[in-house]
Design a protein that fits this description.
Two copies of one chain form a homodimer. Helix content of chain A is 30%, strand content 41%. In chain A, a hairpin with a 2-residue loop joins strand 4 and strand 5. Chain A is of the alpha+beta class. Chain A contains five helices and eight strands. In chain A, strands 1, 2, 3, 4, 5, 6, 7 and 8 form an eight-stranded mixed β-sheet that branches. In chain A, helix 1 runs parallel beside helix 3 and helix 2 crosses helix 3. Chain A has one domain: Bifunctional nuclease domain (Roll), CATH 3.10.690.10. Chains A and B meet through helix 2, strand 5 and strand 6 of A and helix 1, helix 2, strand 5 and strand 6 of B.
Chain lengths: 152, 152
């Protein structure tokens, strides 16, 4: 059985701050090959961590995700990929796939951590097709919100 | 040569939000055996991550530090300790000591990540004596600031 059955690859389009009715909230916007968009609300620090990679910025001090990658590199642990596989009560669930030699392991994780780690290692991000179909948005709706790049 | 020469053990007293002149800022307060105190400014997310351990709270979703610990546990990677070893231009520098079998490795990291990880594994936190001496504060000064527990 293919573990990626019912999944498709998705890429990170950008991180934004959405000027919502309440507080400005960061989102990471994902986009599949045919242009379907999925925004996931994330924390400010995770937005910064993802944005650093997208903008090719090296932070002055390693962030938690950089530390993790540094340790993995030295121990020859490979990030095999990320699977965003569920959405329950507006919360997305994901798994980080980690390989050490022949040993492939899966870890429950937040999509934001998974994406920040995947981008640093150029690991593929896959999403369950049903999760994307249930939550994709029209770009026009996003354009209706006030959207700012987190890097100004 | 003892790698811990010139270092002493320090423990985490608590995390606070200091109601500074500008924005409320989280600090982690460290205390050595003889009661010397050292506050280190940290990010909000890191304060939450450290506070979760101190208050024995399991977050609904694993935070980045929880993910890292989960992966290390499965791969039999041990956190040997944390060394806070320098302060330059008000920025603290630390190293995370990681052991895999006979292999002891050091990684450059922020003190906040180091402390969040050390607390989860009960690994010792050591600080260079000179760094503590140069930066320790009187408790009375901290009491002068408006200090709030991050958990209300």
């Amino acid at each position: 059985m293919d573990m990626y059955e019912d999944f498709e690859e998705i890429r990170v389009k950008d991180v934004y701050i959405i000027d919502a009715l309440t507080d400005p909230t960061p989102v990471v916007l994902l986009e599949n090959e045919s242009g379907s968009m999925l925004p996931i609300y994330i924390g400010h620090l995770e937005a910064l961590s993802i944005g650093n990679v997208l903008k090719n910025i090296s932070p002055p001090r390693p962030m938690a995700h950089d530390l993790l990658i540094n340790i993995f590199d030295r121990l020859e642990i490979k990030i095999e990929g990320v699977m965003i596989d569920d959405k329950i009560d507006k919360v997305y669930y994901a798994r980080l796939l980690v390989r050490k030699g022949h040993n492939l392991m899966q870890f429950d994780a937040r999509p934001s951590d998974c994406i920040a780690i995947a981008l640093r290692t150029e690991a593929p991000i896959k999403i369950r097709k049903k999760v994307l179909e249930d939550s994709e948005i029209e770009m026009s709706r996003l354009e209706g919100a006030r959207v700012m790049s987190i890097f100004g």
